[in-house]
Structure formats: C-alpha cells, structure tokens
Fold:
Amino acid sequence: MRFRVQRATNRQKRVQLSLVILLLVSLFFFTIPAKATESDGNSAQVQEGQDLFQKLKTGKRPQNEKTYETPEQPTVYLTFDDGPSKLTSQVLDILDKENVKATFFALGEQAQAHPALVKRIVQDGHTLGNHSYNHVYKELYSDFQTFWDQIQRSEDIFASLADTRPQLVRAPGGTYTNFDAYYYYLMDQAGYIVTDWNVDSGDSKRVHVPVNEIWQTIKGAPLEHEINILFHDGSGHESTVEVLPQVISYYKKLGYAFAPLTSQVKPKQFPVGKSKWSRNMSLAHFQELMKETQQYALAHIQADQDQKDAEQHLANQTIVAREETAQILSAQAALPLQVHVVGGSSFTIEPSAYQLRANRIELPLRLLIEKIGGQVEWQDDKKTANAHFGVYDLEYDLSTRSIRLYTLGNSVATYSLADMNFKDGKIIVPLRKTIDLLGGRITDTVIDSNKREVSVALRPYYIFKENNSLQKNSLFAMGG
Structure:
C-alpha cells in the first residue's frame, strides 16, 4: 500500500516536471518572435531616421499637413523686426490711432533693454514674435544648435517680461540661403512656426532709406489676398515711422483689413536655397538635435494647449458678443436712413434698402448714385457698372473686383480687391468709401435705437437739388 502511494507520488512529480518543461519550451518559442519583432521595429525606426536624414540633406522638406484659415477679406499683416527700440513707442501710437494690430519680431537683447515696450506690445493686443537674441548672422547660421540656443534664450526673456512664449519665429535676414532643410524640419518638430514675408518695404536696404523710396516700393508691390509686409522698428528707421500712416491709409482705401499674425495664418516661407554658410550636419548630431527639439515640444504641449484654450475662450466670447449685438439690433424696430446733403436737400432710404454690417452702412450702388443725382449703367456682358456723377466716373468691375476712377474722362486711379458685393442682382457698396471716391465726405453719422442719420458733403462741381436736377455750385468748383 505504501509502495503504491509512492509510485503515484512519483508519477505526479513526473507529470508536473513535464508541464514545467513544456511551459518553458513554449515561452522560449513565443519569446523568439516577440524579440525578433521588437528588433525589427528598432531596425525599421533606425532606417527611417537615416532615410529622413538623407532626404533633408538633399534639401527636400517633408510636406506640412497643417491646415490654416484664409480670411474672407483681403488682409495685410504689418510686421516689424529688430526692435524694440525708442522708435517702437511711436509705431505703437500710430497703430493705436489707426486701430490696427500688427506683429513685432523682437530681439531678446533689445527686449532686455526695453522691457516696458515688450509688455506694451502684448498688452495692446499685438503679436510678439521671436527674432533670435542678437541678430548676428555668423553665430546663428554656423550651426543649428547656436540658432536654437538663441531662440530659447530670447523665449525665456519674453516669458519673464510678458508671460508669453512666442510660437512665431522670423529668421534674421530671412530663411533663404540661411536656412537649410534641417533648420526648417527641427523648428517644425519643436512646434515653432517660421515665417518670412511677401512684401519687403525696403526700409532696411541701407541706413536712413528716404520715405518716398519706401512709399514707392510699397505702391509697386503686387496685391495679393494676404500681404505680409516687412518693416523694421529698430534704431535708425525713422523713415518707417514717418511713412507708416500713409501705408495704412493706402491699403485701407483698397479694401484691406489689418490683422496680427497667429498660428492660424499660413506662414510665408521662402524656398530652401543653396546655403551661403559652411556647415556640416552629421547623422549623430542630427539625432541629438531631434531629441532636444522633440523634448522641448513634449514639455510645451500642455502650455500650448492652455494657450489655445484661452484663445478659444476669447473667440467664443467674441462670437457670443456678436450674436448678442445682432439680436439687439434685430429686436429694434427697423429704421429708415435719413441722408442730408450739405448745400443740397435730403432723401430717405427705406430699411429694406440698406444694411448695417461691421459698424458701417452698405447699400446698392445704383440707389445711392441715383439718389444724389447721378446715373448708373450696367453692362451685363462685361459684368461692369459705370456710375457717373458730376465730373466723376466710377467703373466697377465684378470679375476683377476692381474700381477705376475717372475725373473729367481722365483715368485717375485703380483700386484692386475693392470692397464690393453682388447680391440679388445689385452691386452692394459701403456708403462712406463710395462718397470718398466721389470726392465727398461723411461729416456726421447718428446710429442709435431711435434715429439713423448721415450728413454728406459732396465736393464735385455739381450738387443734388430736391427736384433731382443738377445745379452748378461755384463753391465746390473751387474746391472750397
């Protein structure tokens, strides 16, 4: 009996031993493919990194899949480099007076010298960008590590002065022939947005560029839907300050809006050109820089998200405010618009014939011109409207969104990307800008819940009479 128990016990031990051996063998065979897969993955990752390195070496940049927002209205982005300086306060005063927001690509070195101006740039609602620390080309473009260190140094300064870490970066001198594909890629990996420009004002071609030269450069620049203008607010750019109001007025008359650059604006970037700097990038150095820029990006993901959440909250507040304003306006009884012509008579525009949009009055071109005693002729084949009033002729071209102004039959000016809409078979124009084109001006406006009135001073040779006849007026003929 004792022998049988012992045999059973030995049999159990052999079974258990067999199970252990089977388990170990199974684990061994299952582990081999797992380790092989992990090894294959590492090899694939290493190969991918080497392929990327070689691709960048040839100057090819990976495609950026980010989407951007295109503004509905043609927009100018005024940008100022190399400041802040003693001139920056004057620039900010002009922008404040004109109700224009801009972008300042500041140097860390200059920010330390003018901390109050950095704070004011941010407080006034402008965008603060990073322009390196000292602007010394030889240092910045000798190696990406130096460029990176300067961007980081300036960023820390901006954070300490104005509690902001700019995402926008402008390379001193622009990226063309200064950046290579490695520079671009590493900055992308870190989450920065590098932006150049598509209009150079020429204010930094040499010391003290004359005002008229800058002005002629701006006027000769092509008109695009989005214009990023390079100016400088560093020392020695007094001409920039002097010409700035004229530049703002010029683009406003062309129907452009003004806005600061943001992460949602597609950056203007020059193509990768042959570098004029002698530098070598090894695979090992590239891998070190990749690790550093990616670690930076990971460390700032939460900060960036917090900033985006704050921007979205502000945007939501703006939307709510607009909706509330629209509701208030729609709740008010519709009011006719009374138009008083100085030296002439008055007429009324019914509520259904005009609209208030973005704090301005818009109405059909034909209605306005005929009310003040002019005529409008529509040419359907050309999609143009010819408005004649006194010595002025305005030709509205819908196909090119342009207006051509004639005085006594002579061409005076052409306005591209003009402010006009086509609705229900009518050309809709802003009242104030149209009166300005006709040589007149709005002298007074009252828009409230009980009254809507506009006073207009017309300055051509003829003024409107109550019976729709035209009467010559010597005062206006002399430009009085």
Residues 1-9, 19-38, 328-333, 460-480 have pLDDT under 50 and may be disordered. The chain has 13 helices and 23 strands. The domain at 75-281 is CATH 3.20.20.370 (TIM Barrel). The longest strand covers residues 75-81.
